[in-house]
Amino acid sequence: MRPKLTLKQIARELDVSISTVSKALKDSPEIGEETKQKIKAFAKLYNYKPNNIALSLKNRKTRTIGIIIPEIVHYFFTTVISGVEQVANEKGYNVIVCLSNNSFDREVLNLDLLANGSTDGFILSLAKETMQKEDYHHLTEVINQGMPVVLFDRVVEEVHCDKVIIDDIIGAKKAVEHLIETGCKKIGILTTVDYVSVGKLRTSGYIEALEENDYPLDENLILKIEDMENSEKEIGEFLKTRDLDGLFAVNEQFAVSAIGALRRQGRNVPEDVSVVGFTDGELSKNFIPSLTTVSQHGTRMGAEAARLLIDKLERKPDEVESYKTVIVETSLVRRESTKS
Amino acid sequence: MRPKLTLKQIARELDVSISTVSKALKDSPEIGEETKQKIKAFAKLYNYKPNNIALSLKNRKTRTIGIIIPEIVHYFFTTVISGVEQVANEKGYNVIVCLSNNSFDREVLNLDLLANGSTDGFILSLAKETMQKEDYHHLTEVINQGMPVVLFDRVVEEVHCDKVIIDDIIGAKKAVEHLIETGCKKIGILTTVDYVSVGKLRTSGYIEALEENDYPLDENLILKIEDMENSEKEIGEFLKTRDLDGLFAVNEQFAVSAIGALRRQGRNVPEDVSVVGFTDGELSKNFIPSLTTVSQHGTRMGAEAARLLIDKLERKPDEVESYKTVIVETSLVRRESTKS
DNA sequence: GCAAGGTCCGAAAACGTTTGCGTGTTGAAA
DNA sequence: TTTCAACACGCAAACGTTTTCGGACCTTGC
Predict the structure, then answer these.
(1) CA of B287 and C1' of D29: distance in angstroms?
(2) Predicted confidence (pLDDT) per residue in A184-240, tens digit
(3) A137, A112 in Cβ contact below 8 A?
(4) Which of B47, B74, B286 lies closest to A256 in CB terms?
(5) Maximal CA-CA distance, chain B
(6) pLDDT band at A321, cuts 50/70/90?
(7) Which chain B residues contact residue A288 at CB under 8 A?
(8) Between β-strands B331-333 and B292-295, what pairing exists: parallel, antiparallel or unpaired?
(9) 3-state DSSP percent of chain B in helix, strand and coil, to 5
(10) In terms of pTM, does the model score above 0.70?
């Protein structure tokens, strides 16, 4: 076992000073050609690589960006990470991922931990609990210390920073309009309770689409699901008592549960009921019938977020502060769960 | 914008030396009670947190573990990460995730990068390209420098380190035996080419199960898929020309493709053909029919890997070197795609 | 009144870098 | 021979910690 090589060891070995070694390796003109060659050869031979920690300390930069997400076992978030990772790597940044598990305390903990030197900035999506508490002091504090933060997906007005979101309302409208265009007359929605911001927005989109097309709004066709555990049963009972021919679900899960329930009730998709989901994940692609769905383009969101963050990080300190909100367009992916 | 507080600033502000501040905050008996209180109060008021980078440099430890995986948009890997994260956090470690995208070069790059001070050890699953190349010098080098490495899932004998794997062979046998027990007479397998070690092992399990139950081995019922892009078509054609009543697929993807193809051919699952998959992901749970599958318990694998790594990290330096291989048991999850 | 011992604190080194500046050596010009 | 660039290199500080060691001052006991 041979421990890591340092400048000091090279210096001792070659009988020069540490600074000479450092300069030689950076090809400084201060150092004689001969010495440079000798040092470079030695470094290469023993595979010298500078210590990142020491560099970080010296430069007060880590070239690392932190991602904090509510959960990782979740298709959408992984695509976002993938997007972040791609552009981060292009620009020579590293990515460190932490999970809040939707807990406020863990979000604060992770943020504090990473903020103390480990990362130069953050990309994060708020924990559910945080949004309920409406307590964002940990974020404002970090921002006050001069660390750039980019919020995505689950964002909130109170925090002043760059944001990347999708046009939830427009996306939902696209979905419902597609149902209308393909001949559905009575369209229901499977959504979440209102404090989940995306659920609320998508519900708004649903309502807007109905209004703009002169469809009556029937509260009876709206199911707001709170308890994810029992969503299957709840959906089944809801569908049994509604005579609808079009259904918009605000996520994949609800969509497939609905299709399953409908099938058990002897109703075919899309012949009897058309179904549109939200989020284009593994399920949508592989389900039978495959799901018509609103794609959120997570990869693109991640890439945008990373770009925003890195821009801030590499901005000259005298440039004026300004926060952008990037809206990533959704698109409707037509598949087999709706009529064509 | 108020920049981060350091010991030096506290010292200047309170007109004591840096070392006094440091000691006071660690509650050292060397410092007078009065001074201690004063310093602690000040630190608390302004929310002092020591700089992790400086600590890492001093202690030559980062309390960070690096995970390198082939891809993140993949249910199994996310469960593993989740497992690692859980125990890492319990023990006060951070997790940094990098992706190799199944590329050898990116695996080497990431490993090199993280090895230079960013992490204390690694948990990784080899990239496909790495396994083809059979080039593991980057790993042995890192190990030689004294950094512990734990390999999981895609492991390889040539590298000497701790490993966490599942009993692929036994898992596959369980799957096939279940098919046999539920009355299947002619059982096929959808697998990968042999250099993907898990594919090879699962194929072995399939063969063993057949042999032990005196089923004839028919090479004609084995489909080795190389090109993931066209797997759907390939599977369809394979099934069209085989008259089997049981099918074992080495991953979810293949299983659902098969079910789709069978259905198009007018064959019902599980009435005409029973199907068992491998990996218990979103798809298996939500597909209709839901999939009987071999669960790999990714979370448990991640947790085991993290425990192994942290044990090595916190081991006294004089303890003897020894490498363990932990085998995480698989279990068969019975659902609707097989007869009961 | 003086040495011994306690109490409380500060100086400095160390972790591995980078970099501005000082210094010694060389060679050539005067 | 003297002088002065140019060149090649080393010193030291800095980043933010921790920790060992020693020093100043006060108290105590004789």
Answers:
(1) 89
(2) 999 999 999 887 778 899 999 999 999 999 999 999 999 999 888 899 899 999 999
(3) no
(4) B286
(5) 87
(6) confident
(7) 256, 259-260, 263, 287-288
(8) antiparallel
(9) 45, 15, 40
(10) yes
